Amino acid sequence: MGAAAELAGRAIMVTRPIHQAGTLARMIRERGGEPVLFPTIEIRPAPDPQPLERAVANRAAFDLAVFASANAVTMAWPRVTAAGGLAPHARLAAVGEGTAAALRHGGATEVITPAQGADSEALLAEPELRAVAGRRVALFSGVGGRELLAAELTVRGAIVDVVPCYVRVRPDTPTAPVRTRIAAGALAAITATSSEGVRNLYAMLAPDAAAIAAIPHVVSHERIAFAARECGATTVHVSGSGDAAMVSALIALFQVGLVAARS
């Protein structure tokens, strides 16, 4: 089997928001697999626009702008740059390479990212986020996101403005096509990059929860693996951050013969 056919005969569910699923779907297809798009999260602007409006208006006051996700970049960074950008001395930080790549795509050149890992803990370990006493920090995030970054930066003496600029909701994704696949045993794996997305998956397909739990899950972080196991998943593999890492984990999963091909 050639490199381009490493996933041949496998239909793989992609649960990422529809606007973020394209690259992973393409990479699965390039290796012979069939991506099955079933978004379990939809990203919308935050119901209250005022925090973002205030942050954009006060952008020159920030010494550091931290983006908690690529969605935060999508919702906030164009607004910041259109208004004239941050102060010349201000630094940018991203919780993972995917978020940093979104900033670079939007014109950023220098972005602080974790040397290892792709979460709040990893970013907080970076030297630039240790020496923040007295500095004004804008933290662009989702509504109801993790509070660790804001809390720890505050403990370290930073003046933190939390800017919730988007909200995650459960989408009205049609379930009949994927339920038909599940009933036929025609899904080889499920991919997930969000704990909330995993929980939404099981809620959206509640009548098929037992069958879903038996399908191997490939997830990007141990925290998501924990959520999947809480939902009942029996086989969960942690790939690490990024679409390439997820595809590599899928290929490894099938190459070692742990899962037979399903068509």
In short:
The protein has 263 residues and is an alpha/beta fold.
Question: How would you portray this structure in words?
Answer:
There is one protein chain. It is built from 11 helices and 11 strands. By secondary structure, the chain is of the alpha/beta class. It folds into 2 domains: about 5-40 and about 170-255, Rossmann fold (3-Layer(aba) Sandwich); about 45-170, Rossmann fold (3-Layer(aba) Sandwich), CATH 3.40.50. Helix 10 links the parallel strand 10 and strand 11. Helix 1 packs parallel to helix 11 (about 245-255), helix 3 (about 70-80) runs parallel beside helix 4 (about 95-105) and helix 8 runs parallel beside helix 10. It is elongated.
Query: Tell me, what is the CATH class of the largest domain?
Result: Alpha Beta
**Number of structurally distinct domains:** 2
Amino- and carboxy-terminal Cα gap:
17 Å
Rounded to an integer in angstroms, the radius of gyration calculated over CA atoms is 20 Å
Unreliable stretches (pLDDT < 50, length at least 5) are 258-263
- The best one-word shape is elongated
Which percent bin holds the helix content? 25-40%
Strand order of the largest sheet: 3-8-7-4-5-6
What is the number of strand segments?
Answer: 11
Percent strand: 15-25%
| Reported CATH architecture of the largest domain | 3-Layer(aba) Sandwich
Helix and strand string, N-terminal first?
EHEEHEHEHEHEHEHEHHEHEH
